[in-house]
Amino acid sequence: MARRPASPKRLNAANLSGLGADRLGELLMQAADADAILKRRLRLVLAAEAGPDLLALELDKRLSTIAASRARVSWRKRPDLLRDLDILRGAIVDDLAVAAPREGLERLIAWFDLFRGLATRVKDQKGELAAAFETAAPDLWRIAGAAVQADEKAVAPLAQAVERQPLEYARWIGAGGEELTPDMARRLLDTLDKTSSARGMRTAMRRLADRAGDLDLWLSLTTPEERGSPDFAAVMAKRLLVADRIPEARQALEAALAPSAGNRRWTFGRSPQAGPPTLTPAWEATSIDLLEAEGRKDEAQELRWAMFERDLSAPVLRAYLARLPDFDDVEALDRALAHAATYADFETALGFLMDWPAHREAAALVERRIREVRTPLLLRADWAARLAQKYPDAAERLLAAG
Fold first, then answer.
1. Could you tell me the residue ranges of all domains in the chain?
2. For the chain, percent helix, then strand, then coil, each to nearest 5?
3. Peptide bond into 392 cis (omega under 30)
4. Which among 7, 289, 306, 368 is least buried, having the fewest CB atoms inside 10 angstroms?
5. pLDDT at residue 267 in the model
């Protein structure tokens, strides 16, 4: 059967190319006369064809115009601005940086410099402007890496940009992903003014230190308040454990045990409550890792069991059982299920037994403690559906409760 020819009315690149260059040029000019952003894009495309010098000049003009503007941008105009920014970024990343990496980096830095001014005059309740810059962060670090590889001095303007907008760059460093290489992070750290007290600089340097793998610098940039927080102490200890710095990991965890602004408990009257600080699951989990690293495996197991008894945590129980010899784990599981059956909070107990799964024990719990059911109907219906085939009486009682 002969193949059906493509419809000449279908709008696609193949059909349009058949119109010829002259006709396409006329149509583009007509469209550009009604669309200022398209006209600017066409200028950039033509400039890119002429070479990097002319393209850099065209980019500089537009970047300077946006930077100098003080006009408010309404939500109606915001899409046009975002489109304009995306076209500029594309011309820098896809054209200029390919032909001239350092010049491309300089224009991309100027593009990122626009953010602070735009943020004050763009109505952006959805966060689309901030998202556009975060999305472009990998491009920045990729091009920076290429530029610095070609010319080591290219890192200087980037360091100056970080010092101008440290709070913003802290976010873009975090959004850089794998494109921000450890080598690039190290070079940037070596160039930055580490004595700067500008807001956001410490966070920016800490994220760079993290990417560069400089644990000592990262630790030096933590604050006393952070070191007193159980969750942050857990983060510190985990990093130290990875580096096989076990005694320091112990010190980091124990620092959160001392009363501090990071771990004190507050009463309704906003005064500190006496007694030990409230620890967190992250701190407790890391303390188990630390006990393991110290060779105190029995103590780690005891802590796992104590945490399970308190919280009925399935992951903790699985970790506990996985470290037991054969057959001992069966006995321990029976003990765990028996503990769950007598757990004070009925909903927590039933949820654990249903999800483990231990449906026989769950059905027995329903039959024995049905008067304690306070679970919403939707969740009860889900549990009942799972019990219905083997334990229909328990399923029926669960649905009728409440």
1. 27-221, 222-263+278-295, 302-342, 343-402
2. 70, 0, 25
3. no
4. 7
5. 38
